[in-house]
Every structure is written in structure tokens, then in C-alpha cells.
Amino acid sequence: MTSEQRRARRVTLLDVAREAEVSRATASLVIRKSPLVADETRRRVEAAMDRLGYVYNMGAAGMRAARSNTVGVIVPNLANPFFAEMLAGIEQALEGAGMVVVLANSREAPANQETILRRMRERGVDGVILCPVAGTRPALLGKAAGWKLPVVQALRHVSESECDYAGVDYAGGMRQAVEHLRALGHRSIAFGTGGPVHSAYRERLAGFCAAMEARGLDPGVTIELPVAPPFPPEAARRLIDHPARPTAAICFSDVMAACLANSFADAGVAVGAGFSIVGFDDLAVAEMARPRLTSVATFPGEVGEAAARLLLSRLESPERGDRRLISLTRLVARDSTAAAPARD
């Protein structure tokens, strides 16, 4: 059977069995994750499924033709409060359309992410909102397109030229943070980095460097920090003893900024009066920290709503061109930033 003929009709389990040169019963055992199948046979059958585009959806083809009114949402870290706020925005937008969310945590692992995407496809979700993990290859989007599974990238993107995307003007947020600190008299400003490298990481770092260079400031003062507690108590000391003698730091996230503030407190340096710290995202932790954190608000709930709107639009108009919705940021000044301390 030619590839054109396969596309003309739905691929069956018998087609998969013939492609893999096994019996239909063996192919069925692979589908049902039976431990009775040898690993080599399992891999051969799964490879045949990939080549043929076979979908096991626990129902007849007629069932797949109708909408399931479910949307898959795949995030890389459920423990991060940012994704909880984004999810609230997604659910709010989808509720009005009578749709519900199926949520999954990829745990920043590409293999987990692809497995989850496959499972959601098998269960007939109408589309997926995906925050890609670091290391995601563009081929994943091509695979979803081949499956005719609508995907919207949120917060991070694998490709800027294909697939809908709802994100944040990270570079604009960094400009606001740098301008705020410069207006307070800070000239040596560090950037707190850390965690997996993805598009949001690269855009925040590039935005910081561009904003510093545009104002004639050195963008080369960086410090590698954990993305969550426990936090090394020597982090503040590394900045205090840095040759550039920074008086402020902009952190990749609010959690990182709050932990760095604790490190300075442990070192006996008053955050704000002695050293200024700016967080990013303006989550609840920014208001709860002491001192309260100055932060760049990225409005994850609005990003979630935008991603849901893009998906609903795609479901209504499958052939429309790809779209990008970029949310603006706003700096929220609080107690963790103050005038630069005098230096000898």
C-alpha cells in the first residue's frame, strides 16, 4: 500500500501489524502495554505506528470526528506558582466555550513531554496548549501538525516561524527593570541566572544585556543561582565580593529574588538600603517577601487567556495563518529597591 493510499483511509491495527511483520494480536498487546511482548518487538510495532500515523483512541473513527470539548495543557513544573496562574487564565477562557482542561506535568523532560502529547492525542483532545521544556526540538511541532492536532505554544516557544504562540515581552520587562535601577543611581547591576535554558531564559538574558548596553552599562556581571530553595548562603557574599562591586541585581524569577534577599539578610546587608533586588513575574511571593520585592509583572493569567483564545480560534479556522500574541509587562516598585548606596 502506498503512502497516498494510507492517507486516503484510516490506518488500522492490522496495517500496523503488517508493517511491523507481527500478528494483529501481538500489535494489540503492544497497544495495551502488555508485559508479554519482547522489548524488540514492542519497539518495532511502535516504530510502525509512528510511520503510519496510527491513532489508538479507545473508540470508533466516528467518535473522533466530533469534538471532545477537552483541551490538553502541558506545563514543565506544576510546583511553580507561575503555571497555576496561567492555568487559571486558560480555564477562565475555555469555560465560556464549554470546554474543560486535562492538565499534565512534563517535569522539564522532553521524553515525558512527547509521551504526554501522544496520550492526549490518543484520548481525543481537541487541541493542546504547550509550554515546551528546554531541549524541545521543532520536529515535535511538525509531528503534531502531521497528527492534525492543534498546538499553541505558551510562555516559551520552540519555533518563532510556525505554530501559534502566546508569550511575554521579556525584553521590554528587562528594559523597565534596568531603567528603574538606573534612575535610582545604580550603575553596576548583576543578573541572577539559573535553571534550564529555554526561549524565555534566552530572551530575558538578551533583554538584560541589550538594556544595559543601551545605557552604557556593563552587562557582564552575572551570578548563577538555584531556581528554588534551598539557597546557598554564600550567594550574597559572591556579589558583595565581586570585582565590579554591584549595588543591585535583577533576578530571572521572583522565587530566585526572594531567596537572594534572604541570603543578603543572612549576610547582614539590608535589602533595599544596602543592596537592591528586582524579581520577575510579580507573583504572590513578591508581595509576601520581606522586604516586599520590586518585580516585573508578566501577567501569567492574561497569557493563559491569550493562549486559550488562540486555540479556540484555530479550532474554528484550522487553515488560518499562525499568530503571536505578546503581552506587555509592568514594573511594580516595592521595598527591595532604593537609591544606590554611596561607594568609596
TrEMBL record:
Keywords assigned by UniProt, alphabetized: DNA-binding, Repressor, Transcription, Transcription regulation
Q: Coiled-coil annotation: which residues? A: none
Check the UniProt entry and state the signal peptide residues, or none: none
Name the InterPro entries for this protein.
Answer: HTH_LacI (IPR000843), LacI/GalR-like_sensor (IPR046335), Lambda_DNA-bd_dom_sf (IPR010982), Peripla_BP_I (IPR028082)
Name the Pfam families on file.
LacI (PF00356), Peripla_BP_3 (PF13377)
The answer to keyword Repressor applying to this record is: yes
PROSITE patterns associated with the record: HTH_LACI_1 (PS00356), HTH_LACI_2 (PS50932)
Single annotated GO MF: transcription cis-regulatory region binding
Q: Keyword ATP-binding on this protein?
A: no
Stretches assigned to the HTH lacI-type domain? 11-65
- Going by the entry's taxonomy, the superkingdom of the source organism is recorded as Bacteria
- PANTHER family hit by this protein: HTH-TYPE TRANSCRIPTIONAL REPRESSOR PURR-RELATED, LACI-RELATED TRANSCRIPTIONAL REPRESSOR
Return the protein name: Substrate-binding domain-containing protein
